[in-house]
Every structure is written in C-alpha cells, then in structure tokens.
Write a structure and sequence with these properties.
By secondary structure, the chain is of the alpha+beta class. 26% of the residues lie in helices and 36% in strands. It has helices at residues 2-27, 81-86; strands at residues 37-46, 54-62, 67-72, 75-80, 100-103, 109-113, 119-123. β5 and β6 (109-113) form a beta hairpin.
Length: 125
Amino acid sequence: MQLLRVAWALTGAAICCFLLLLLHSRLLKEGQLAAGTCEIVTLDKDSSQPRRTIARQTARCACKRGQIAGTTRARPACVDAGIVLTRQWCEMVPCLEDEGCDLLVNNSGWTCTQPGGRVKTTTAL
C-alpha cells in the first residue's frame, strides 16, 4: 500500500513538471529570449585597413535582475551590472582562456592579448 502511494506521488510530480514545461514553452513566444541569455543580432567587419580589422557587433539580451549585457569568453552574455557601472571590464572575463585581459588607460574598454602577441581591443559604447 505504501509503495502504491509513493508511485502515485511520483507520477503526479512527473505530470506536474511536464505541464510546467509545456506552459513555459507556450509562454516563451518565437523570437523571445529565455532569461539570462543573449544572441548576436548584427555583426559587421571592416578589413579595409592593412593589418587591422574593425568589427562591430550588436547583441540582444534578456538579462535577469541585477545583470546587464556584457561579454564573457568573447561571446555576448549577461553579467553583473556592477562590473559595467564601475568599468572593471576584466571582471566579466571577456577574453578567451589563453588570452590575458588588460583595461585600457581611460577604462573605456579592454584588450585581450593572445600568447603569440596579437592584441584585440574592445571599447564599450
């Protein structure tokens, strides 16, 4: 008898979880981002200057409370809003694992230095 009650309780919990998942997917309309995620909307590259590529990227994010759109591991991501407000860019870990992060002198952005010496500079708008 006790085993039967446990089985019914587990079945009820499974059905509840399934219904919540179904409801969530219905509420999340096409084109709408899940909370805490980002996607790249536009990406423009300009290689007209020798040895220099200028890339501009626009991302769309649906960040949770206390977060703001930023960059983590060279991808758009939701980061702690305090990082952006204090302009301590390297705290959001914007560079790839093998790259070093340094703040620009005026704190307007950061540089990611690869082991071979190549430098990628990013400035925030």
